[in-house]
Design brief:
The complex is a heterodimer. By secondary structure, chain A is of the alpha+beta class. Helices cover 45% and strands 20% of the residues of chain A. Chain A folds into 2 domains: 57 residues; 122 residues, Alpha-Beta Plaits (2-Layer Sandwich). In chain A, a hairpin with a 2-residue loop joins β5 and β6. Chain B is mostly helical. Classes of the chains: A alpha+beta, B mainly alpha.
């Protein structure tokens, strides 16, 4: 064995090797330790969120229980009116305008691709709702559970009121969420921009959304007390 | 030989008590460097078995291998080539080769 030749230098090399080994070992342990730890943190944050929500609902329940009959029915009535779109609302949100393309249509392409269609508006509205929009209006028409968005010649009809582009869609909700939902990569904005359709989003701290204007239109349906058959 | 073992143990103990670790982005570089070091050590052992061990070759090989391996992986990262796996595979193969040679030497000697 000729190892004895450079004892000191070999000892140094082993020292470095040992150092590297144990540092590597330690950092691997660290990584193993931190991953579950992060998960725990994430879960506990979620738990806090749910607990806060639970508390809020509980206090709401207590409020309702504590109210007299008239107060209660008024509160419920207000909630229902709000939910049905019968009251004007305001709050933080976005104002989104969509207009037909400014590009000159190429001969080989269908000129329809350069126009805003009911489908495009539907996609935008769907995306906004998925992002948690609480109220939406299109060109001053409040979207309710019964609202249609339909192509009507060169115009689009909402609540049976026709309007021509540009369309102004107002939504109340978390501004950033709404903007990101529309601008998501491969999302609505991306697919519309291919054809040069003008889409502009302005965040606003105070978006005002009108109430549903038409009268209630339940001519045929009546309230039923029957439960859903199983 | 005893110096090598003492150095190794001392290094390990030192490694456990030093306050700094490896930043998360450099762990792959570090592991490749470690692999290169291990390869050099086994190469050195093999050379010692064959009787042509040279400490200058060993020490220079130990450090340049480690640095070069880490550097290559770093460059590969920036060029989008996964040299990490290539380096691990190459060093792993060589380590096993060297181990085999050492084992043969020990068996034949006895």
């Amino acid at each position: 064995m000729h190892i004895e030749k450079g004892r000191l230098s070999i000892a140094c090399v082993s020292l470095v090797l040992g150092l590297m080994l144990s540092v590597q070992f330690r950092s691997t342990q660290d990584i193993r330790a931190t991953l579950p730890f992060q998960r725990v943190e994430e879960l506990s944050a979620r738990l806090h969120e749910v607990e806060a929500e639970n508390k809020k609902l509980e206090s709401e329940l207590m409020d309702l229980r504590g109210m007299s009959g008239a107060e209660k029915s008024e509160k419920i009535n207000d909630d229902i009116m709000m939910f049905a779109g019968m009251t004007a609302l305001e709050g933080p949100g976005i104002i989104l305008t969509i207009d037909d393309s400014g590009k000159i249509a190429k001969k080989e392409n269908d000129p329809n691709l350069y126009l805003v269609h009911d489908e495009d508006i539907l996609k935008v509205v769907n995306e906004l709702r998925a992002a948690g929009a609480e109220a939406i209006s299109i060109n001053g028409q409040r979207l309710t559970a019964n609202s249609e968005i339909r192509c009507a010649g060169p115009t689009i009809s909402v609540n049976n009121v026709r309007s021509a582009p540009p369309f102004e869609i107002k939504a109340i909700g978390e501004k950033d969420n709404l903007i990101n939902a529309i601008n998501m990569r491969g999302g609505v904005a991306d697919s519309l921009k291919v054809w040069g359709i003008k889409l502009d989003i302005q965040p606003s701290d105070n978006v005002w959304i009108p109430a549903y204007k038409a009268s209630s239109k339940y001519k045929l349906a009546t309230a039923s007390t029957k439960e859903a058959s199983k | 030989m005893i110096y090598a073992v003492i150095g190794l143990l001392l290094g390990m103990v030192l490694g456990f008590f030093v306050p700094w670790g490896i930043p998360a982005g450099y762990t792959s570089l570090f592991s490749v460097a470690l692999m290169a070091c291990l390869d050099s050590v086994f190469g050195g052992l093999r050379a010692a078995c064959n009787g042509n061990f040279d400490d200058r070759v060993f020490i220079s090989g130990f450090f340049t291998n480690a640095l070069l391996a880490a550097f290559l992986v770093y460059v590969g990262d920036h060029l989008g080539i996964d040299l990490y796996y290539v380096a691990l595979l190459a060093f792993g193969l060589r380590i096993f080769n060297n181990l085999g040679a050492i084992r043969q030497h020990l068996i034949i000697k006895k």
